[in-house]
Amino acid sequence: MYDGPNVGAGRADRSLAGDLRDPWCDALASGWGELDGTGAPASVVAPRAVPQQRSASAADIYLEVQHSEAFQEVRSRYRRFAFPAVAVFFTWYVAYVVTATAAPDLMARPIAGAVNVGLLAGLGQFLTTFLLTWAYARHARLRRDRAALDLRWTVFERKRKRVERQGPRWAPSGAAEEGVER
């Protein structure tokens, strides 16, 4: 169904929740487009209702995962890298701007021919940007991606089980309806 010349075949019969076999399909992860149970799109602000016994909603699943130790570890790893990296880079950038403004004679000091301290410091800004980008991508790949993918699979499996318990929410367009002649 997903390989070969008919790659797009079978896409019309997917539910509004997306293709349940595809963990990367998160069209409704933000909550936009979800139905409110009556077939109408849900409002952005849900009305207050009397709490009832029901299966876990997508929001409940996401909150449960957000409070999990694995999620907190992924966020902690991100913060341990991102905050110091931003602080170092911002300090380096501000030092460059302040030095260029406050000490133009220092920045104009020639190094070799037409190359001066200011030019090297400006090129150093580009170099540190590329190095920081590389370091961030490497850190994410080695320290966070696998754990984040595991969390994504956890959410996917819980959502799939919830939707399977509820049954289909709508019939695809063009599907024959019971008792209706065309």
- Annotation field: number of helices: 4
**What radius of gyration results from the CA coordinates?**
26 Å
Overall mean confidence score, pLDDT: 76
Helix content: 40-55%
H/E element sequence: HHHEEH
Q: Sheet with the most strands? A: 2 strands, antiparallel
**Which structural class should the secondary elements be placed in?**
mainly alpha
Distance between the termini: 29 Å
Taken from the alpha-carbon principal axes, the silhouette is elongated
Structural features:
182 residues, mainly alpha, two-stranded antiparallel ribbon, 2 strands, 3% strand, elongated
Could you describe the 3D structure shown?
53% of the residues lie in helices and 3% in strands. The chain is mostly helical. Strands 1-2 form a two-stranded antiparallel sheet. Helix 1 (58-66) crosses helix 4 and helix 2 (69-102) packs antiparallel against helix 4 (117-166).
